[in-house]
Design a protein that fits this description.
This protein is α/β, with parallel strands linked by helices and 342 residues long. The relative contact order is 0.16. It is built from twelve helices and eleven strands. Helix 4 packs across helix 6 and helix 8 runs parallel beside helix 10.
């Protein structure tokens, strides 16, 4: 659920989009996500073994070989050539394989050899991007790997829709280790699967949204956060502890944005929309033409929003020419005029 805006609100239709003008409090002088607004648009990659080869029963050795083959320089050159404002990379998801080492995770889960890669791909991607002035953000689910029962037991996960106090404490420890190691190298997190915010995080005492955010900002208090509580039309904010909206959307034909028009904010969070250019998340041929991708980008930018496009990558982490073509059109559209902040 989103937090309610103070005061009254008026709905209008602009260009076929539902927009809500709110009498909410004025924007503070500074906002952690101001740099994200200035970045305009970015690229996301789902680099997950069970998506790259779903039928395969992956081993830790095979996963390490795949991660070792990720060509960070080639991808960074592509992003630089496109003028991407930032890059968002998955650390892991449901398989239980992660592309960065984490001793805390290994201690709780106990799987040997570890399913966390030897190579810290996040650190290596940052190094390549930093030379080109491109910020790095990372993706992680808010829960344990859904298809790894051993990990769920070791992390003391009791199931969805519960507070899961012991799990939350352990998961925050896992997050804190990564957060401290990366420090300023990681500019933001996008946390998936916060589907039960009231049952799991809305408490005055930790673990709660505040302790979750504190762990994620360890080593870098300026790090921006988003907590994805599902697909909503219009896009909603879930907590005051996030800095930008997760903004996951699938159907781009529906009304997508409820925003304080002049500020580009949703309940104090920077308006951000995340969708995919492939057939689905991380996979398939392009579902949009270059013109369609540019048109959608232009609409969100016109609201003062930021757009992240998820793009499939090859085994070596590099995007194919058909997606690069569409991202060139996105880049041109993102340069359009945006309403100034007051």
């Amino acid at each position: 659920m989103s937090r309610l805006w103070p005061g009254t609100a008026t709905c209008v239709v602009l260009g076929g989009w539902l927009v809500v003008l709110s009498a909410a409090a004025a924007r503070p002088e500074e906002h952690r996500a101001d740099w994200l607004r200035a970045a305009r648009w970015g690229v996301m990659s789902h680099y997950l073994p069970d998506w790259i080869e779903p039928a395969r029963q992956w081993t830790s050795q095979e996963w390490n070989g795949l991660v070792d083959g990720f060509d960070v320089e080639a991808l960074a050159r592509q992003l630089q050539d496109l003028g991407a404002g930032y890059y968002l990379l998955t650390i892991g998801q449901n398989s239980g394989f992660y592309l960065s080492p984490n001793a805390t995770y290994d201690r709780y889960v106990g799987i040997r050899p570890s399913r966390c890669s030897r190579r810290d791909l996040v650190a290596d991607v940052h190094e390549a991007l930093a030379r080109r002035g491109i910020p790095l953000m990372v993706y992680l689910p808010s829960g344990p790997p859904a298809r790894d029962g051993v990990a769920q037991k070791g992390l003391a996960f009791e199931g969805d829709g519960r507070r899961n106090r012991e799990f939350q404490d352990r998961w925050e420890e896992v997050i804190r280790e990564w957060a401290l190691r990366w420090g300023p190298k990681v500019a933001g997190w996008w946390f998936d699967g916060c589907y039960h915010p009231n049952a799991m995080y809305r408490y005055p005492d930790p673990p709660n949204f505040a302790s979750f955010a504190e762990a994620a900002r360890a080593g870098n208090p300026a790090r921006i956060l988003a907590f994805n509580h599902g697909v909503f039309h219009p896009v909603l904010s879930v907590t005051q502890h996030e800095d930008y909206t997760a903004g996951e959307v699938n159907d781009l034909e529906r009304d997508l944005v409820k925003s304080r028009w002049r500020e580009g904010r949703v309940d104090g969070s920077q308006l951000h929309v995340l969708s995919y250019l492939g057939r689905t998340w991380g996979r398939g041929a392009p579902r949009f033409t270059a013109e369609e991708a540019a048109g959608y980008t232009r609409k969100v930018r016109g609201l003062g929003g930021v757009v992240t496009w998820d793009v499939p990558v090859q085994r070596n982490g590099v995007m194919t020419a058909e997606f690069v073509e569409r991202l060139r059109a996105v880049a041109a559209a993102a340069d359009g005029a945006v309403p100034p902040l007051p």
